[in-house]
């Protein structure tokens, strides 16, 4: 920790509105720990979220916050990073928010590879709206809406991210908090878009994928696992059922979006751009 | 002197290039130019045309009657030859020879001469040469234009084609050149883009949609020189949410689209309002609903943008009246968005976005960027910064994250407390609603009264908005000799400036709204905001822009159908 940093540096005085026992508490603790261990300060962090139980998290941590629309956490997050690159931008969103309502932004922001970390609280259910199927809910799972069982097969977020060209793809589990903190630190430090799909139980609405259900299946990718091998990562990402791997599935360095802005290399960040209206007068010439 | 040339052909035949040669040559000669493009939503085939009007005095709209037709296909001859004036000349290839009802036809060996010049692809350039000679344009003035339009490897063949075409005709029209004034030739799209650049735009996100794409194309062409980011979003929802994120993080940001894209942006509009994030959105209208007429013009999204999004919040809507207005109003929109922390919607349409007009160069000298971002006096306070602090004027000091010491900036789409956190408290909801709506009162003082055209105390008053400004001005010129007539042309349209309207309306016998829509949306707004009802309407909704002559004819019909007009 830096001088002047205290354990409560990232504490918010906002009252928490999650159910007791919610996996989100573990994620909140993990992100605060990760930021402290990375020697970050609240004013350096921008937390962006959409709508859902996960999306409330930014309110419970002291940081800059942009809590936007359902499904739309990524667009404002990447734009904020592009114009104000000294901010450490972290997106918290749920499985419905990210893979359902926001599916298009998920795919295309992987392509952009803006330097942000994206933590998806994946409880395989819609919790804020009280228990409907999400894009990661198992086929056949019965809910108040899916009364005959979920008719749609679940999405594999890791496969999708890998196929779209993500440069950092990981899975965490709220039942392994130290492991999760390490994943978060790696994701935040990774240059480019970094995804962690975080398995978490929903104590109120998902009676299938409980803490125990995950705990019985989850195992950590071994140390000798090579993170730079896409074929291997895809193979591992397919593993789901009796055994569920967690850890960094894939990590490579690619040019980030900002790296690709070759014409801005020697410019200050856009937020500090110095500009007078008269500077645009030169563009009249071609209209003459 | 006031001439009108139509250049027509199929998409892919080089109609645009031929039109550019003519427009630029005329502009370089110091004459005023107004060039309007009518195009179909296809890349090859179909029927596209430009109408290039030029005169020795300012021109404000296109007109239908033609002095010259340059027909690159037989369809152009069939569709447009009846618009030719009695002294008019039609120039076309001899293979399209057919009987025409009026004017004179010059059936020339354009195709053959193009091959002679080097390639059949130069048929349009041969024809342009023939037309330029009809007007006795100085040969030497054309070379720099040609040089600017053609890459070096095809310049020579086009130069030959132009010379060959020139030799095919004799001068038929007498040109009078005005005293040369400094002029730029610009479209509405370019003017919006340049206005935004002047205002310090540094982040633009958009999704291509005709007829708004011209703005993004223009800005993208300046990306490196201006040192900004222009990013094509995956959809319009992303486009507006990205612009909002960039604005929250301290950049001046903008997006643009047409009506269909704006439908997707609507939730984002509410987000900008609720988070009090400044945002400029240009909505360049085309006929809807849904896909409608992709490449044509209409003014039917006014009612939509006035009430778009659920809930209640202040917004500013400004209709752009011509390219000059578009430049200055776009610049102003950024200052207003920052000052009041609101979304500002600029309403244009295909006509305004695409036509070229010669106008005096924009005056940058008086423009000042006003960011209205709070400084140290706010962020150096010991207590935590409150993004939505309740203040007397309803405007909370705004800070930029990462640029305010150890303070943090918390923005929220939920109803929120002063410090930006989610709340469900009834009293906070009321206070925040009042705080947001208070900005509407400020805007009412900020809005500019409409332009007054024609008589200042007329018996017949036309009411119009946006891009019909030019055509209405020309209509008034055609009508004012015979009638006591004037017009109010609204730019700022919401909140509606009502002073001039309420001053003039009681004294008129006929109040006629002139709009490019089927339901009279300005008239509805005026009834709602000023309790004044129009007596008649002139409405056009076939996707084609109204000319001055068209409006004058329709107004005359209205007057003759109603005895009040002849009082």
Polypeptide structure, described:
The complex is a heterodimer of chains A (288) and B (567). An 8-stranded mixed beta sheet of chain A has the order 2-1-3-4-6-5-8-7, with helices on both faces. In chain A, 28% of the residues lie in helices and 16% in strands. In chain A, helix 6 (177-189) links the parallel strand 5 (168-173) and strand 6 (194-199). Chain A starts with 22 loop residues before the first helix and ends in a 28-residue tail after the last helix. Chain A has a single domain, classed as Thiamin diphosphate (ThDP)-binding fold, Pyr/PP domains (Rossmann fold, 3-Layer(aba) Sandwich). By secondary structure, chain A is of the alpha/beta class. Chain B has 4 domains: 2-166, Pyruvate-ferredoxin Oxidoreductase, domain 3 (3-Layer(aba) Sandwich), CATH 3.40.920; 185-359, Rossmann fold (3-Layer(aba) Sandwich); 376-446, no CATH class; 451-566, Rossmann fold (3-Layer(aba) Sandwich). Chain B is α/β, with parallel strands linked by helices and 567 residues long. The two termini of chain B are 35 Å apart. In chain B, strands 6-5-4-1-3-2-14-7 form an 8-stranded mixed beta sheet, with helices on both faces. In chain B, strands 9-8-10-11-13-12-19 form a 7-stranded mixed beta sheet, with helices on both faces. Chains A and B meet through strand 2, helix 2 and helix 4 of A and strand 7, helix 7, strand 8, helix 9 and helix 10 of B.
């Amino acid at each position: 920790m830096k001088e002047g940093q205290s354990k409560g540096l990232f504490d918010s005085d906002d009252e928490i509105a999650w159910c007791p026992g919610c996996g989100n508490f573990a994620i909140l603790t993990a992100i605060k720990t990760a930021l402290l261990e990375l020697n970050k300060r609240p004013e350096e962090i921008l937390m962006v979220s959409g709508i859902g139980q996960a999306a409330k998290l930014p309110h419970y941590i002291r940081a800059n916050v942009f809590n936007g629309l359902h499904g739309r956490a990524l667009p404002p997050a990447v734009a904020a990073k592009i114009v104000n690159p000294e901010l450490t931008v972290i997106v918290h969103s749920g499985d419905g928010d990210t893979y359902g309502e926001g599916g298009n932004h998920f795919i295309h922001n992987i392509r952009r590879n803006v330097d942000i970390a994206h933590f998806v609280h994946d409880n395989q259910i819609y919790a804020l709206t009280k228990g409907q199927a999400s894009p990661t809910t198992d086929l056949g799972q019965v809910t108040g809406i899916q009364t005959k069982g979920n008719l749609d097969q679940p999405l594999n977020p890791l496969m999708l991210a890998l196929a779209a060209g993500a440069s950092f793809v990981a899975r965490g589990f709220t039942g392994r908090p130290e492991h999760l903190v390490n994943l978060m630190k790696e994701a935040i430090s990774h240059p480019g878009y970094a995804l962690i799909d975080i398995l978490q139980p929903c104590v109120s609405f998902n009676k299938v994928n409980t803490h125990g259900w995950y705990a019985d299946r989850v195992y950590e990718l071994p140390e000798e696992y090579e993170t730079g091998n896409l074929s291997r990562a895809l193979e591992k990402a397919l593993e789901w059922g009796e055994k569920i791997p967690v850890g960094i599935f894939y990590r490579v360095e690619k040019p980030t979006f900002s790296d690709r802005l070759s014409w801005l290399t020697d410019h200050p960040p856009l937020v500090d751009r110095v500009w007078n209206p008269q500077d645009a007068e030169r563009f009249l010439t071609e209209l003459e | 002197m006031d001439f009108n040339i139509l250049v027509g052909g199929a998409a892919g035949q080089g109609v645009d290039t031929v039109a550019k040669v003519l427009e630029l040559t005329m502009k370089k000669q110091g004459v005023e130019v107004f060039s309007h493009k009518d195009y179909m939503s296809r890349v090859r085939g179909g029927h596209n045309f430009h109408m290039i009007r030029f005169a020795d005095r300012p021109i404000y709209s296109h007109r239908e009657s033609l002095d010259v037709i340059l027909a690159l296909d037989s369809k152009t001859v069939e569709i447009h030859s009846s618009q030719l004036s009695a002294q008019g000349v039609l120039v076309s290839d001899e293979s399209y020879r057919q009987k025409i009802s009026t004017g004179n036809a010059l059936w020339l060996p354009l195709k053959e001469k193009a091959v002679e010049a080097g390639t059949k692809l130069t048929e349009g350039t041969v024809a342009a040469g023939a037309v330029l000679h009809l007007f006795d344009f100085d040969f030497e003035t054309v070379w720099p234009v040609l040089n600017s339009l053609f890459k070096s490897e095809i310049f020579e063949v086009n130069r030959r084609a132009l010379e060959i075409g020139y030799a095919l005709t004799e001068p038929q029209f007498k040109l009078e050149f005005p005293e040369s004034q400094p002029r730029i030739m610009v479209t509405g799209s370019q003017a919006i883009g340049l206005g935004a650049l002047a205002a310090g735009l540094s982040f633009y996100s958009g999704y291509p949609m005709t007829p708004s794409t011209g703005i993004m194309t223009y800005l993208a062409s300046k990306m490196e020189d201006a040192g900004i980011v222009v990013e094509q979003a995956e959809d319009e929802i992303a486009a507006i949410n990205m612009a909002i994120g960039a604005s929250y993080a301290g950049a001046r940001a903008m997006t643009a689209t047409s009506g269909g894209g704006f439908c997707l942006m609507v939730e984002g509009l509410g987000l900008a309002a609720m988070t009090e994030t400044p945002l400029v959105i240009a909505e360049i209208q085309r006929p809807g609903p849904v896909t409608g007429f992709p490449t044509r013009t209409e003014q039917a999204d006014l009612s939509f943008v006035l009430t778009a999004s659920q809930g209640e919040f202040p917004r500013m809507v400004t209709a752009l009246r011509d390219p000059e207005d578009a430049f200055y109003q776009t610049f102003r929109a950024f200052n207003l968005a920052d000052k009041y922390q609101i979304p500002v919607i600029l309403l244009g349409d295909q006509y305004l976005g695409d036509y070229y007009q010669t106008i005096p160069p924009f005056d940058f000298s008086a423009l000042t960027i006003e960011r209205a971002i709070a400084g140290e006096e706010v962020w150096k306070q010991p207590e935590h910064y409150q993004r939505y602090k309740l203040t007397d004027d309803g405007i909370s000091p705004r800070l930029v994250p990462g640029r305010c010491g150890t303070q943090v900036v918390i923005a929220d789409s939920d109803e929120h407390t002063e410090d930006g956190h989610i709340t469900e408290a009834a009293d906070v909801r009321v206070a925040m609603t009042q705080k947001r709506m208070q900005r509407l009162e400020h805007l009412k003082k900020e809005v500019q009264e409409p332009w007054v055209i024609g008589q200042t105390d007329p018996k017949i008053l036309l009411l119009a908005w946006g891009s019909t400004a030019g055509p209405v001005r020309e209509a008034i010129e055609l009508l004012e000799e015979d009638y006591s007539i004037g017009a109010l042309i609204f730019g700022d349209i919401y909140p509606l400036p009502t002073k001039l309207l309420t001053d003039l309306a009681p004294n008129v016998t006929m109040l006629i709204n002139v709009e490019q829509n089927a339901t009279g949306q300005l008239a509805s707004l005026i009834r709602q905001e000023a309790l004044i009802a129009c007596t008649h309407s002139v409405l056009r909704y076939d996707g084609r822009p109204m000319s001055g002559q068209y409006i004058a004819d329709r107004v005359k019909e209205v007057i003759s159908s109603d005895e009040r007009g002849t009082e």
